Amino acid sequence: MHKGRMPPGWDKDLSDDYEWIPLRLPPDLTRISASVRLSIEAEYRGWELTRVRLYNDGSRRVLLRRKKTPADRVGVPEQPAL
Q1: Terminus-to-terminus CA distance in the chain, angstroms?
Q2: Spatial CA neighbour of 51 closest among 59, 61, 43
Q3: Tell me, what's the pLDDT at 9?
Q4: How many whole angstroms separate alpha carbon 2 and alpha carbon 28?
Q5: Of the candidates 16, 23, 10, which has an alpha carbon nearest to the alpha carbon of residue 59?
Q6: Could you tell me what percentage of the chain is helix, strand and coil, using 3-state DSSP and rounding each to the nearest 5?
Q7: Nearest C-alpha neighbor of 22 from the set 66, 58, 65, 62
Q8: pLDDT over 90 (residue 81)
Q9: pTM (global) more than 0.85
């Protein structure tokens, strides 16, 4: 499980069935641009949005998750190492 810097309370509901990744979106990123970027992650990499927190400075913290594959659970990488 990936545990980066998360806001307090976000780490209590993390399931081992999912991969988790916290992201910080900068304040100069518009809401539409953030939506497009997160949609691309969802469409092509399988991530889904779990939580969003908006801060006073305009930055956002988001938590993404995706279902682990059987290979992820065993610790086998998705692609062979060259």
Answers
A1: 24
A2: 61
A3: 66
A4: 26
A5: 23
A6: 30, 30, 45
A7: 62
A8: no
A9: no
Q: Put the strands of the sheet holding 48-54 in their side by side order.
A: 18-25, 60-67, 48-54
Tokens representing 39 are 């949609």
Tokens of 75: 């610790």
pLDDT tens by residue, 30-65: 889 988 988 888 888 888 888 888 889 988 888 888
Please name the residue that has the structure tokens 């692609």: 79
Encode pLDDT of 61-78 as tens digits. Answer: 888 888 887 665 555 555
In angstroms, rounded to a whole number, what is the distance separating the alpha carbons of residues 50 and 23? 11
Residue with tokens 């991969």: 19
Q: Scanning the structure block, which residue is given the tokens 């939580």? A: 51
